[in-house]
Amino acid sequence: MIKRRIFKDISICILSVLITVFLLPGCTFVSFGHQKEAKEEKEIFGFLDGYNHKIKEAQGYLMNAGFNPGPIDGKMQRDTRKAIKNFQRDNGLKITGFIGTETWKKLGSYKNIIKTRAKVNKKSDSLGYYSSTLEGTKELQQALKNSGFDPGPIDGKIGSKTKKAIMDFQSAKGLSGNGTIDSKTLEALSKYFTTK
Question: Comparing 22-31, 36-45, 59-68, 124-133, which segment has the lowest mean pLDDT?
């Protein structure tokens, strides 16, 4: 009798797990602490199942910001959630994996970065180009020099002098002076890049 009851309890647990795994794919389980952001995300995007043009837009913004959301297909997939978390972490936002009001506002600052980059340098395809490639960093250093801020040698390395020049430039332009290149800094610097 006891063995049958234990077997029944185990069977119910296994069945519950199978239902969760096979019948609820794509469902997002929200921890109590992230309900607000999940609700805001639902208000911003509407439906989250299947294709959604606003999700595709957000994926483009994430890509512009240097975070790979996986395929830009308008679907809220695991890679997109991971990119959202990384974006939130790097931008000092609450790390939830959901695009709430604050995250959406911050992501919106990457809306026009494609236009800025196209004017600045047609070879670049992400914001990270200027801080993660030798050629891009040299172009950045030259733009800082052209704008009157000394980045040190134009060597393609973001050393202490280049970082200080970025912070000084940001401060002079009324931008957040954290020493990293973001869309607003790049936009302010765009007129100082030499065209090739």
Answer: 22-31
Q: Identify the burial level of 151 via C-beta atoms within 10 angstroms of its C-beta, where 0-12 means exposed, 13-18 middle and 19 or more buried.
A: buried
> Which 3-state string (H, E, C) describes 80-134?
HHHHHHHHHHHCCCCCCCCCCHHHHHHHHCCCCHHHHHHHHCCCCCCCCHHHHCH
Domains belonging to the chain, first-starting first, are 35-111 (1.10.101.10), 122-192 (1.10.101)
pLDDT per position as a tens digit, 98-115: 999 999 999 888 776 544
Greatest pairwise CA separation for the chain in angstroms: 85
Is residue 55 within a helix (H) or strand (E), and if so which, with residue range?
A: helix 53-64
Q: Is the pTM of this model over 0.85?
A: no
